[in-house]
Design brief:
With 472 residues, this protein is an all-alpha fold. Helix content is 62%, strand content 1%. Residues 86-117 are annotated as: Disordered.
Amino acid sequence: MAPLPEPSPPRPNTAFRRLRGQLSPSEFAASVRRAAREIGEQVSCDARYIGRVESGAIRCPNYAYERVFRHMFPGRTLTDLGFASRESVRGHQARGPAGPPVPGPRPGPCEPPGKGSVDVFEESELLRRSFMAGGAAAAAVAAAPRAGTPPRRAGRRVGEAEAAAVEEAVRRIRVLDDRHGADPLYAHTAKPLSAAYALLDAGGYNRSIAERLFAGAGELAISVGWLAHDSGRLSDARSHYAEALATARVSGDAALEAHAFCNTAFLARDAGHPREAVRAAQAAQRVAERLASPRLLSLLALREAGGLAWLTDRGGCERALLRARTLFGRGPCDADPEWMSFFGEAELEGLEAQCWSALGDWKRAVEHARRAVALQNPHFTRNIALFTTELASDLVAGGAPDAAAASAGRALGLLDQVKSSRIRRMLADTARILRPYGRDAAVADFLARYETAAARPETAARPEPAARPSPV
């Protein structure tokens, strides 16, 4: 096979460096986070991200960062800020290092409907193609060990381009999942994940690249595990989280280990193993104590509270919820992991609502679920659908079927955009519980719409059930 061409070295972004002025990278990152909060965005910008922008490693920011930078520097385009145009990075006729033209995506997943609707199937296929277009990434999959075959070297040194490809795959999955849910994405992640671990096996990289590859491969395993979780493949999710945990232990990466334990706790709760959920959340908190991120500890306390709620330990759950709110109140900081961009006040309210629901306190569950829906950033369409569905479930359990039907109807409307088997199962449970109230006009209207939607093949949920019992 002909040798793969070396990627051109990144070109420093001197325009962006000038905009930073006399601020240190950490100070400038803090100003970016403040600007994000002003417009309702959540970015986990830190000094390392600023360094990667200024070095040219990030040729074009994701859509959330683009909106923040445009807010900070009104009237400036991406090229004015020193970035490559989005079309040249992801657009039509963009070429990989050794491949034919790769069709670009339709308008980005962060753009609202009406400005060019997103074909999520094309986007998710682009995820797979764009990652595999990278020379060493493609070679890594070719070099991945098969039965009885020793691994082969990719024939080139693994460096910045490969580490960046793994990191971008993780970010791309998260953006698409936030907007569309897991179902159309999961099938496209097997090769990128295999490639990431094959790159680790290839060797030939320096220490800083090794750290990024281990962290990136572990985060990619967690992201793929979450897609499996949300699409109803619980056993697959458990395997991916275990792979990420092993990667964290091998590399000594406390942040990755805390993340793997966090997702394991969430999965255990959904799979009907609340005691395991509590143990995993507590293990995550022990690791996260070294990371100086109150927001991370807040989320982990909520994971513990969720397990305790399903164990009907009301006192323990309330103590964990109080700890979560206290930690959340300390605000964001530079140590907050990038993957926690979803964790704002809306998520805090939504996770607390789930605890009260598990404890059967429907009044409190409804109160917090309503706040979760009202506070949610419009970018997180999947979470809006999730919390709206949970609100409907809590309303019907609390004896308000007409209000439940209205909420369930709003959630049903969102499922044209969100493909999540987990949310569809929850909505199916709500529809089942509402059927005895079918004489109510609002309930009857929702049930008719639901039955029509459920008859479409693409709306069917995967058969593997989550173990969450019905609220009544």
